[in-house]
Amino acid sequence: MPPRLIDLESWDRREFYLHFMNEVVCTWSMTVELDITPLEGQRLYPAMLWLLTDTVDRFPEFRTTRTPRGPGVFDAMTPSYTIFNGERKNFSAIWTEFSPDYREFLARYTADVERYRTSAAFAPKPGKPENCFDVSMLPWTAFTGFNINVYDDGHYLLPVFTMGKKFSREGKTLLPLALQVHHAVCDGYHAGVFLEALQAGIDNFEGA
Chain-centre distance of CA 180, in angstroms? Predict the structure, then answer.
């Protein structure tokens, strides 16, 4: 499903969008520690992929993209994520169709990972949809800051998420999460509201 075009003339973000797309082209990132204690006993990566997608789908700022006809917004998103090939010590990027039912999504995720986990290709799964956003995980190290640079023309609007190694502190299990966004569509306020909703989703996650 292609994105729905935004009427730039009536968009309440028009002035900010034009400024950060044309005058001061600007992306920004932040790193937070999520309390993932409620996810104990769950498969962490698919659970977080589902939670991120479920939360992204609630906020148009995280579904806004650029089209040849101007800014547009997807109605729903699909996670594109990395899987590690332990034998080759490299990764592949695959995607899994999202479902609001976590058990259904988990089954799709499990089938995709099983099929492509030994692939040597960068993107072995065909048919990647347009409405994908990128997620990766570095389970080997925790971090307090992480920045990824997208060297296009500076107009990539969709969010990029990177997770690190979980760790324990004061009886809680914490997970570093880095979020990269474009200032044309997302301010600090939007990131704060998003992260608050994500943590609430973790706290109330029912799992499989």
Answer: 9
- In words, the CATH class of domain 12-175+185-199 is alpha beta
Residues 94, 112: Cα–Cα separation, whole Å: 8
- For residues 83 and 115, the answer to whether their CB atoms sit within 8 Å is no
Catalytic residues: 183
- Cβ proximity of 61 and 179 under 8 Å: no
pLDDT tens digits, one per residue of 128-154: 999 999 999 999 999 999 988 777 778
- Reported as a single tens digit per residue, the pLDDT across 64-123 is 999 999 999 999 999 999 999 888 889 999 999 999 999 999 999 999 999 999 998 999
The order of strands in the sheet holding 70-73 is 4-5, 70-73, 64-67
Boundaries of every domain in the chain? 12-175+185-199
Residues in a beta bridge with 67: 70
Collect contacts of 119-123 with beta carbons under 8 A, ≥24 apart: 119/85, 119/92, 120/85, 120/88, 120/90, 120/92, 121/92, 122/92, 122/93, 123/92, 123/93, 123/94
- Count of CA atoms in the C-beta half-sphere (13 A) of 140: 3
